Amino acid sequence: MSNNNLIKGSLQTIILKLLEENERMYGYEITQRVKELTEGEIKITEGALYPALHKLEAEGLLSTEIQQVDNRVRKYYSLTKDGQKEVTSKMSELQGFVENLQRILTPDLKPGFNI
Amino acid sequence: MSNNNLIKGSLQTIILKLLEENERMYGYEITQRVKELTEGEIKITEGALYPALHKLEAEGLLSTEIQQVDNRVRKYYSLTKDGQKEVTSKMSELQGFVENLQRILTPDLKPGFNI
DNA sequence: AAACCATACCTCAGATTCTTATGTATGTAA
DNA sequence: TTACATACATAAGAATCTGAGGTATGGTTT
Question: Which PANTHER family match (chains A, B) (predicted)?
Answer without folding.
Answer: PADR-FAMILY TRANSCRIPTIONAL REGULATOR, TRANSCRIPTIONAL REGULATOR RV3488
